[in-house]
């Protein structure tokens, strides 16, 4: 039972445009959400997070939006750069250190 | 800091053989996690430790998998006997936790396991 879902396995975006990665979750107990980025042959690295008491968190070119009623979050990257090409994992957590990850979305930025 | 260290980086073995994956967490971190990455299921948490004690092993697939953390700087994940369906990338991660929220986990580079 996949509690965190990333329904788009891949996404291609032109350099300079906006990249939008989506994530849905089913467990209403989740109260903290994170995005990780993964390059080939490396481990995932933390990118940005958001608490359930907020609906937006911004860090430079990266913004995460949370819609609790829809159980949906998204990651916006503006403007997209070639170095953003990677696999992005959405993750969720409640009350402890355990993270539940999605299956990932491979983002390709086209120069 | 060197980050989370995993060894070996690649492992090719034959079905039925024992496989041992190793992990050294970041010094001072009190949580250690073992994950498995596959195309179909993404990143799955297998087990995690707090202060060397296993807290949740509900993700361990079956009895063929076992994990230990004999001290704060070393952990192993063992598969015995290995099967082709165990082929995946295995990640170790560590964090300094305790707030009960998703503290940032730092991942190692992973071990790519192929069971023939």
What would you say about this model in short?
The complex is a heterodimer of chains A (111) and B (116). Chain A has 111 residues and is an all-beta fold. Chain A has strands at residues 4-5, 10-14, 19-25, 32-38, 45-51, 56-59, 62-67, 72-77, 86-93, 100-101, 105-110.
How does this model look, in words?
- The complex is a heterodimer of chains A (111) and B (116).
- Chain A is mainly β and 111 residues long.
- Chain A is 0% helix and 54% strand.
- In chain A, strands 2, 4, 5, 9, 10 and 11 form a six-stranded mixed beta sheet that branches. A five-stranded antiparallel beta sheet of chain A has the order 1-3-8-7-6, with no helix packed on it.
- In chain A, a hairpin with a 2-residue loop joins strand 6 and strand 7 (62-67).
- Chain A is globular and about 40 Å long.
- By secondary structure, chain B is mainly β.
- Helix content of chain B is 0%, strand content 53%.
- Chain B is built from no helices and eleven strands.
- Chain B has strands spanning 5-7, 10-13, 19-24, 31-38, 42-50, 53-56, 65-71, 74-79, 88-95, 106-107, 111-115.
- In chain B, the strands form two sheets. In chain B, strands 2, 4, 5, 6, 9, 10 and 11 form a seven-stranded mixed beta sheet that branches. A four-stranded antiparallel beta sheet of chain B has the order 1-3-8-7, with no helix packed on it.
- In chain B, a hairpin with a 2-residue loop joins strand 5 and strand 6 (53-56).
- Chain B is globular and about 40 Å long.
- The termini of chain B are far apart.
